[in-house]
Specification:
Blueprint: E1 4-5, E2 8-12, H1 19-32, E3 40-45, H2 51-64, E4 68-74, H3 77-86, E5 91-95, E6 104-110, H4 119-129, E7 145-147, H5 149-161, E8 171-175, H6 181-191, E9 195-199, H7 218-226, E10 231-235, E11 242-245, E12 251-252, H8 254-267, E13 276-279, H9 284-292, E14 297-300, H10 304-314, E15 318-320, E16 326-328, H11 337-351, H12 355-358, E17 367-373, H13 377-381, H14 384-397, E18 400-405, E19 411-417, H15 421-441
Keywords: Isomerase, Magnesium, Metal-binding, Phosphoprotein
Domain Alpha-D-phosphohexomutase alpha/beta/alpha: 2-130, 155-249, 253-364
Family: Belongs to the phosphohexose mutase family.
């Protein structure tokens, strides 16, 4: 698609993604869902400066097409998905660029089932963005905006209803990335009885994900070590991701989280026959470790929406990505960082075990990753020099190499994985140099 990638329409705020785009997306969805009725669309946003611009631009477009727009204000992506699913909304919109820095923004869309909007509807949105026309609502058919903080509060109540036990006595570090979780996460863990230590909770519109959050968990690891905490949880800008830190300051990514949750659920008879769904960049050691426990692992292309789709097709109730998108399908149809943190906390208490011990039996193979900026990543990947470099890197490393265009940024993502850490680094370097040369030649 031209505008929508694996996680919405994302780009530099008022650069490749403008307020006009947001207005026109609102115009289309407001009209699309208002056929024969008054549509109800719920909108949330993260803390970045431009989110106000895009929130109001979308609302203007949707109301001009005859829809009522329910504003959750600063909230998390999973809360938008929850409200859509439980409050009889037609559509949900989250204004966020997830883990990107503040200069970027994005528009994520959800259908009435609380899951990512279908490719068919997204294509219709794109067609309209490229020059379509729609009539404006007039008179009493013009929509309105509704302050809907109550929807966010119901989501919080839902999270609080899930744990079977109190978290009293658990010392927890939270890194909210100066983003959507900055107030919600502490509220949840305070209410559940945990003793909370907080960082990344002073958003100013420009510091979202800056040196903090799920992509930069070093500050949280230091917090855990400094205060001898039991566990730490780092969220991204819209809190649909969670990365953990164990009691010794070790980083536990989405693969580690899946390992802990899958084995626990298997032992309790809760995992079902669908096994675990993850992506092609998941560490191969995860699949081998889970298979030793009798758990089937299915791999799909990168993107939490593909994970969710495969989970639905297989009847799986657990899936996710190394980035920390973890889907507990019994409770939600999309990744939810705060929910993931609750699940891990509850498992630790139920098993009376620190997180590091729950990871025994899983040792990830060394991986090296690199993101190389590309004007046209898909085209660059097809260049003969790049293809030869990938083949050479695979031969020399003796392991696994994955090179793919990002679905959210103008970069080519490189992953090398093998038992020899230096060989993985060498493999990435070979491909990086070939990509840079190919970019210069285009």
């Amino acid at each position: 698609m031209k505008y929508f990638g694996t996680d919405g329409f994302r780009g530099q705020a008022n650069g490749s993604l403008t307020a006009i785009h947001a207005f026109r997306v609102g115009r289309f969805l407001g009209r699309y869902y208002s056929r024969g009725k008054r549509a109800r669309i719920v909108v949330g946003k993260d803390t970045r400066l431009s989110s106000y611009t895009f929130e109001y631009a979308f609302a203007a477009g949707a109301t001009a097409s005859g829809a009522d727009v329910y504003l959750l204000h600063v909230t998390t992506t999973p809360s938008v998905a929850y409200v859509v699913r439980t409050e009889n909304m037609d559509c949900g919109v989250m204004i966020s660029a997830s883990h990107n820095l503040f200069a970027d923004n994005g528009i994520k869309l959800f259908g009435g089932d609380g899951e990512k909007l279908s490719e068919d509807v997204l294509q219709q949105v794109e067609d309209y963005l490229d020059g379509g026309t729609l009539p404006l609502a007039t008179g009493a058919d013009i929509g309105r905006t509704v302050d809907y903080v109550a929807g966010r509060n119901r989501y919080l109540a839902y999270l609080l209803s899930l744990p079977k036990t109190s978290l009293r006595g658990l010392r927890v570090g939270l890194d909210c990335a100066n983003g959507s979780a900055w107030a919600l996460a502490k509220t949840v863990f305070d209410a559940l009885g945990a003793q909370v230590y907080l960082i990344g909770a002073s958003p100013d519109g420009t510091n979202i994900n800056a040196g903090c959050g799920s992509t930069k968990p070093a500050a949280l690891a230091e917090l855990v070590r400094l205060h001898s905490l039991d566990v730490g949880f780092a969220f991204d800008g819209d809190a649909d991701r969670c990365i953990c830190v164990d009691e010794m300051g070790g980083i536990v990514d989405g693969d580690g989280i899946l390992y802990v949750c899958a084995r626990h659920m298997k032992e309790r008879g809760e995992l079902g026959e669908g096994g675990v769904v993850t992506t092609i960049v998941s560490n191969l050691a995860l699949a081998r470790a889970l298979e030793r426990s009798g758990i089937v692992v299915t791999h799909v292309q990168v993107g939490d929406k593909y994970v969710a789709e495969e989970m639905a097709a297989r009847g799986a109730i657990l899936g996710g990505e190394p980035s920390g998108h973890i889907v507990f399908r019994k409770y939600a149809g999309t990744g939810d960082g705060i929910l993931t943190a609750i699940m891990i906390s509850e498992i630790m208490l139920e098993r009376k075990s620190p997180l590091s011990c729950l990871l025994r039996g899983y040792k990830p193979y060394p991986q090296r990753r690199s993101d190389v900026p590309c004007k046209n990543a898909a085209q660059t990947l097809q260049q003969e020099g790049v293809r030869r470099a990938v083949e050479r890197a695979e031969r020399l490393s003796g392991g696994r190499v994955v090179v793919r265009p990002s679905g959210t940024e103008p970069v080519l993502r490189i992953l090398a994985e093998c038992e020899d850490e230096s060989a993985a680094s060498d493999a990435v370097g070979i491909i990086e140099r070939a990509v840079v040369s190919a970019e210069e030649a285009l």
